[in-house]
Amino acid sequence: MTARKPNAAATAAHERLFPGHISTLAVTDPELIEYFDNFAFDEVLRHTGDVDERTRLMTQLAAMIAVGAVAEYRVMLGAALTADVTPVETKEIVYQAVPYAGMARVFDFLHATNDVLTDRGIELPLEGQSTTSPDTRMEQGLAAQKRIVGDRAVDAMYANAPADEQHIQRFLSGNCFGDHYTRTGIDVPTRELLTFSMLAALGGADAQVKGHVAANLHVGNPRSTLIAVLTGLLPFIGYPRTLNALAAVDAAAPADR
């Protein structure tokens, strides 16, 4: 039987990101690993040129949190750190996931991140990145929400929410945006790519994916960047969720034909 191994380009990419790591699956499942690595670490990467490697890895980590893939997240977090994603950035990816995936899911990823960072000799806690206080989070969050989503859209959300749901709108402004989007460590356009990646990976969040396609366009992430991000996510989140997110991109930013 001929040995099945990934091609030269996939092997080189794998060695760059995971230096010295030999997958046990390459021994037990060589056929799958051959064509998965050829796809994820060669073919796919030829179509992600609109995002740099660091950003691609950050969006992949965000998506892995959304799908609950703790084991793969640990491996890819190591790759991200090898590719010079900073410890602060890795923590900010996890924090950014809380309002979208929920703390129940994110809890395990926070511990996994702490374990990986500690194993690399990085002292915790890291320097804080919060810029708001309990007294300012609502005002600054609402301002950030309007900058990202747009004044009209935010005003409409408040206007259309029944009286007994107004507190949810305030939570969105004060918590989702005030506690998270106002943080330093990762800029707003990158945070929007992370959010888009999480929502695409979650599944069942089509309205929110559509809303954050518009938000990405609003903060300067064009269609080509969103397509590149989804291309990088495809091997890890599958075709159905990728195609649903592509439909949202096509609706908000149709391709030139």
Question: In brief, what are we looking at here?
Answer:
This is Carboxymuconolactone decarboxylase family protein. The protein is 72% helix and 0% strand. It is mainly α and 257 residues long.
Task: Please describe what this structure looks like.
It holds the Pfam family CMD. It comes from Streptomyces lonegramiae. The structure is a single chain. The protein is an all-alpha fold and 257 residues long. The protein has 2 domains: 41-129 and 188-252, Up-down Bundle (AhpD-like), CATH 1.20.1290.10; 137-178, no CATH class. Helix content is 72%, strand content 0%. The protein contains 14 helices and no strands. The protein has helices at residues 8-17, 25-28, 30-43, 53-67, 70-82, 87-101, 103-119, 137-149, 151-160, 166-181, 188-202, 206-218, 223-237, 239-252. Helix 8 packs across helix 10 (166-181) and helix 13 packs antiparallel against helix 14 (239-252). The longest helix is centred in the middle third of the chain and has 17 residues, at 103-119. It is globular. The chain starts with 7 loop residues before the first helix and ends in a 5-residue tail after the last helix. The mean pLDDT is 96.
